[in-house]
């Protein structure tokens, strides 16, 4: 499977944000299906009783001429990965990684906001130029 054009940038940004990359890619093999989420990462939580937070990140560039088409593909893939994670690693939270530019330009339309809310889409926004995380949206 080919890596997204932002793969290395997101990996660097996640590491700068204090996460340890544990899987590149994070492989799923459940329910008769093999799949790969772009990254798996973990971070020790500051409070001792919180333990380790584990995430999986699917990176999307949204480079096709139609944002709607790309969003539908990304949302479908996200929902499928949620089902697979529930079976294999239910404690791991899934995030969709998008650039700040794509987020600012396209993620504030009413239909997109409703889809994000309805499907509880978690998003990590990154600055591709500075290779940093700008927001975690739950």
Chain-wise SSE layout:
Elements: H1 7-16, E1 20-23, E2 26-30, E3 33-37, E4 39-44, E5 52-59, H2 67-88, E6 93-99, H3 100-106, H4 110-118, E7 123-127, E8 132-137
Parallel strand pairs: 5-6, 6-7
Antiparallel strand pairs: 1-4, 2-3, 4-5, 7-8
Provide a compact summary of the structure.
This protein is 35% helix and 33% strand. It has helices spanning 7-16, 67-88, 100-106, 110-118; strands spanning 20-23, 26-30, 33-37, 39-44, 52-59, 93-99, 123-127, 132-137.
List key phrases describing it.
globular, 138 residues, single chain, two-stranded antiparallel ribbon, alpha/beta, six-stranded mixed β-sheet, 8 strands
Estimated share of beta-strand residues: 25-35%
Mean pLDDT: 93
Number of strands: 8
Shape: globular
Largest beta-sheet characterization = 6 strands, mixed
The topology string of helices and strands comes to HEEEEEHEHHEE
List the quaternary state of the chains.
single chain
The portion of residues assigned to helices is: 25-40%
**Radius of gyration of CA atoms, rounded to a whole number:** 15 Å
| Largest sheet: spatial strand order | 1-4-5-6-7-8
Low-confidence blocks of residues: none
User: Please, how many helices?
Assistant: 4
- The first-to-last residue Cα distance is 28 Å
Secondary-structure content class = alpha/beta
Describe this structure in words.
35% of the residues lie in helices and 33% in strands. By secondary structure, the protein is α/β, with parallel strands linked by helices. The strands form 2 sheets. A 6-stranded mixed sheet has the order 1-4-5-6-7-8, with helices on both faces. A hairpin with a 4-residue loop joins strand 7 and strand 8. The radius of gyration is 15 Å and the shape is globular. The protein starts with 6 loop residues before the first helix and ends with a strand. The model has no long low-confidence stretch (mean pLDDT 93).
